[in-house]
């Protein structure tokens, strides 16, 4: 089995576009399941939870990089985070939101004028731990449903109380216990505590119940950003990345199952008019990277993991 090194991802994205809009419940309001205590001032949150009982991941699909900001809203009471990744106000509207960890959906509702959450999904992870996903544009899970880590639960939106205009973003919280806001804990993603007050994080939420420690950006290297991807059943995902600094394309196939076990995996990149470049073999975590410059030309790309394969047409020209 080939061992792969991890390169530093060079991903730079804009911070939250929400500004000073109300992004969390107002003091004195109540959620459907958790009473909110009226506060005279924001308390100093406890720093006791730097690791969590569950292996939480970023609430976005594998390989995506999102800028989190815990200080962009005057409504924040503790360690809540607002996430954006786009360069315009509505760029993130409709983007996929996934479960940070496996659990049971205990709230899936639009809370209307009750508070500022709008469309809210709350997941119970056991041991008193829960996660909140607020302002969703749509919800794809129902109360009582069991969800797996990495399963889609909704999409990024800007729903809130009537008249409360906010930019699309995901408001994310981790809680333990019932006494708000003291129960809001520091978020931990892939074993690392979020770098409060702001940090751009690349998702390792790759599904399958266990996590591939490698991301497309890490495999391809500094400066590369995902521009396209294709799922390979449940076995993996193949990614096409581009580096604006040097004009190179890069393809890698990231496994989602049989992690650490050498299984047949491949990735390829073909510049129109040139020979195909392929990395194929029995790998534990990923195939690739395969890189090539394609100035003024189209590329064909794809890969295979398990029994599933993907082959693009010539595309992404220029």
Automatic annotation (TrEMBL):
Top-level division of the source organism's lineage: Bacteria
Keyword Cell inner membrane: no
Protein keywords: Signal
A Pfam cross-reference name: Peptidase_M23
Keyword Signal belongs to the record: yes
Signal peptide residues on this chain, from the entry's feature table: 1-29
Domain M23ase beta-sheet core, chain residue ranges per copy: 84-178
Protein name stated in the entry: M23ase beta-sheet core domain-containing protein
Organism: Streptosporangium lutulentum
Upper classification of the organism: Bacteria, Bacillati, Actinomycetota, Actinomycetes, Streptosporangiales
């Amino acid at each position: 089995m080939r061992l792969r090194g991890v390169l530093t991802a060079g991903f730079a994205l804009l911070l939250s576009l929400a500004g000073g809009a109300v992004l969390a419940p107002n003091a004195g309001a109540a959620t459907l399941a958790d009473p909110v205590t009226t506060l005279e001032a924001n308390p100093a949150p406890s720093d006791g939870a730097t690791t969590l009982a569950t292996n939480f991941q970023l609430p976005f699909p594998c390989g995506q990089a999102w800028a989190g900001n815990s200080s962009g809203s005057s409504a924040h009471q503790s360690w809540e985070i607002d996430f954006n990744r786009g360069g315009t106000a509505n760029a993130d509207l409709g983007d996929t939101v996934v479960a940070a960890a496996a659990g049971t959906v205990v709230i899936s509702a639009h809370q209307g004028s009750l508070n500022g959450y709008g469309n809210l999904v709350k997941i119970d992870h056991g041991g008193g731990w829960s996660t909140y996903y607020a302002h969703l544009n749509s919800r794809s899970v129902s109360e009582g449903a069991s969800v797996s880590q990495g399963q889609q639960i909704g999409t990024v939106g800007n729903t809130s109380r009537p008249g409360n205009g906010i930019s699309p973003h995901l408001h994310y919280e981790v809680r333990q216990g019932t006494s708000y806001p003291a129960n809001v804990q520091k978020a931990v993603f892939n074993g690392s505590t979020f770098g409060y007050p702001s940090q751009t994080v690349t998702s390792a939420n790759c599904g399958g119940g266990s996590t591939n420690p490698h991301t497309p950006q890490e495999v391809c290297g500094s400066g590369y950003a995902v521009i396209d991807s294709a799922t390979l059943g449940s076995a993996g995902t193949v990614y096409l990345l581009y580096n604006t600094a040097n004009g190179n394309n890069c393809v890698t196939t990231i496994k989602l199952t049989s992690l650490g076990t050498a299984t047949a995996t491949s990735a390829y990149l073909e510049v129109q008019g040139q020979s195909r470049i392929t990395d194929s073999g029995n790998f534990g975590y990923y195939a690739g990277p395969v890189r090539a410059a394609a100035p003024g030309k189209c590329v064909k790309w794809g890969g295979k993991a398990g029994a599933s394969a993907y082959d693009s047409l010539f595309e992404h020209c220029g």
